[in-house]
Amino acid sequence: MTASARTDDIAFLKARVALLADFNDERLRELAAGSRIETYDAGDIIVYAGDELHFLAIILDGKIAASVPNADGTNQLLGELDPGETFGEMALMSGDPGVADFAAAERSRVMLVPLTLFQSHIMAEPRALQHISRTIGARLQKIMSDPLKAAAVTRKEDVAGLLELKSERAERILVLNCGSSSLKYTFFDTEHPAKTIRGNIERIGADGYASAFAAMLKDLKDPSTITVVGHRVVHGGEKFTNAVLIDDDVLREIEALSPLAPLHNPVNVAGIREARRVFPSVPHIAVFDTAFHATLPSQAFLYGLPNEFYVKKGVRRYGFHGSSHGYVALAAAQFLKRRPRELKIISCHLGSGASVCAIDHGRSVDTSMGFTPGEGLIMGTRCGDLDAGIITFLQRDNGMTAAQLDELLNKKSGLLGLSGISNDMREVEKAAEGGDANALTALKTFCYRVRKYIGAYVAAMGGLDVVIFTAGIGQGSAGVRAIALQGLGCMGIRLDESRNREARGAKEIHRISTDDSLVTVLVVPTDEERMIARETLRALSRDYLARASEACRTEAVPIEVSAHHIHLAQKDVEALFGAGHQLTKASDLSQPGQFACKEQLSIVGPKGRVERVRVLGPARKATQVEIAMTEQFKLGIQPPIRESGDINGSPGCTLEGPAGSVTLDKGVICALRHIHMTPADALRYGLKDKCNVRVRVPGDRELLFGDVRIRVDPSFALAMHIDTDEANAANLGKGAQGFIDGIQREG
Q1: CA–CA distance, 53 with 92 (Å, rounded to integer)
Q2: Active-site residue, from 158, 189, 289, 707
Q3: 335-361: pLDDT as tens digits
Q4: Measured distance CA(220)–CA(224) in Å, rounded
Q5: Where is pLDDT greater, at 576 or 698?
């Protein structure tokens, strides 16, 4: 039963809720007015473990029990909460799903405060921030001190809701994909998921989108209920690395990127303008195809051209199909009940446009499409990878103009050009089965290119857990999948032929690998529109928090330089320095409890060695070596960019100490840029654990660092860490400071 706050409830908040002790009456009334009060009978579930939380709960009457479901169906009681106590604080800090069931132990009344409303108040109240930080720390300490409770809450997290469209209030989202002659649209209702509406209007005439929008509005029945519009935009360049709220400045910047996508961005802009005219009172969000690939390392996105072409002209690999690759990676993780950051995935989006993407621990690290969508795989009418000398040959020998070359490479090549029959794989396969030699060659060449990229990306990631096939050909052609995976048993990929045939045209996820295959192969139907809707909701939340957070504008984050260093497991401490040896503190580090040791080691790689590398303490569960980019070349090791502690699939090295040596089979990483902060800091900045942000460093030459991971823990001290090479390149010295400029991705 839902009710509004009473006068005595507001008095209760001030007198009994320690978190709100310093709030004045006006702020308490604002909180109460924007919240709802629910009454629960004994046994009623308020929140299930695994649910995404969008509110902070304040207990007004009764008693609430927190428990964790066990594998056998029983529950492990974590504790009970009384009137005046709260739950949901962890969602403020991490954005992760809830780890416990919260149920009424007796008839209870609970005030549910929307997180955005609560955060907009809590950010202005330092004592409330400190209270939350203490509460979270005390609860974690209490739970972790009990082995049974600790085991229950640290089980593998529930990933069932990865693709659900959730928000703290009901949202009705219209997703638009505007093409040169078509308008695709999808309507989502977060409160009523079954009410999804999809449509496609083709052959848009000379009057542009006006008539298409009119037809769409008629199909939507009640467009006045729409609360937000999400737009697919093909190219975001390096400027847009996440979905953004569209204003006039953003629209001009999208239009300015048209030279990078001349066939797409201009029509995307035209569609946005028409949509803003038709829906003037709701927010509009741009979701970029290129944004998913913003995590590509420089060795993957740079071409072998003079550097000035990248610096001055933006010539680099951008990658496309980002919404599709992002969606199927999440869907695969959900299907396998694994966290995305545990997996190495190769996603094959095979349709009239086709690309392959290497996704390592949730991050795109390489992709086959490049500066334009024309690079990489053979496609319906695009040729894919091409020797650049062919272009100059055709210009010189055939006298072809730029327009003629564009027509040849993008509209007359690919399956159409090779087969001479069709750009449709179904027609090509049919002709190949009938004995047409050109069609058979086109089919084999298409599949060979896919197989070659899979092999390359296994090498690039140093391993593989999952291969995904998606889009029209990927989902529809068992033959293409079979030919593309032939001969890859050496990489642990074994296809089950029966499962593969049965997955033809699959509408649900199908596993098509054998039970003993080391690599799981899945057919995953893509849903780019749902992914755009998901990113639209996240952008709304990010924008609200960024606007609400005064800290982002006014409070600097100290920047510290992390030189190469080594963390050792105790067994390796003793192997390197002698039996029973304990690490010796030389000096404290900025993070509480961590210290630089007197001990130093040599790192030995296939090519060379680095001497006198400092060990940091205390000892850890696993040995980890963090090196800078210049040292990678010296050692002959190319480690992945990873968060500290994430060492699976990383290369190894040899460590030499005074008492012996240790050869590691994994553990060498290049540390991801990161910011340490407490829960109180995170709340003040409007951030969550494991989200990625941009950091602006003011100065004579203003710098912008992207892809900076937020790490939240009650024991941390506020500081951003970058490696020595980055600091030297940016000319950052002691005392450097930065400002959080925006959220790129949520955790």
Answers
A1: 9
A2: 289
A3: 998 888 889 999 999 999 999 999 998
A4: 9
A5: 576
Q: What is the pLDDT of residues 486-537, one digit of tens each?
A: 999 999 999 999 999 998 766 789 999 999 999 999 999 999 999 999 999 8
* Alpha carbon separation from 356 to 161, 379, 456, 746 (Å, rounded): 26, 12, 11, 24
Cβ–Cβ under 8 Å, residues 47 and 62: no
Distances (CA, A) of 744 to 52, 384, 539: 20, 30, 9
Catalytic residue check, 543: no
233 contacts 261 by C-beta, under 8 angstroms: no
Give the Cα separation of 416 and 446 in Å (integer).
11
What are the E-state strand segments in 158-239?
172-178, 182-189, 197-202, 228-233
Calculate ∠ Cα 237-325-640, nearest 5°: 75
Q: What is the pLDDT of residues 368-389, one digit of tens each?
A: 999 988 999 999 999 999 999 9
- Provide the whole-model pTM: 0.73
Helix pair angle (478-485, 425-433), 10° resolution: 80
Q: How far apart are CA 732 and CA 738, in angstroms?
A: 11
The span from the CA of 372 to the CA of 261, in Å, is: 7
Domains (range + CATH), the chain:
2-153 (2.60.120.10), 549-747 (no CATH)
Cα distances from 658 to residues 574, 584, 590, 652, in angstroms, run: 11, 15, 28, 20
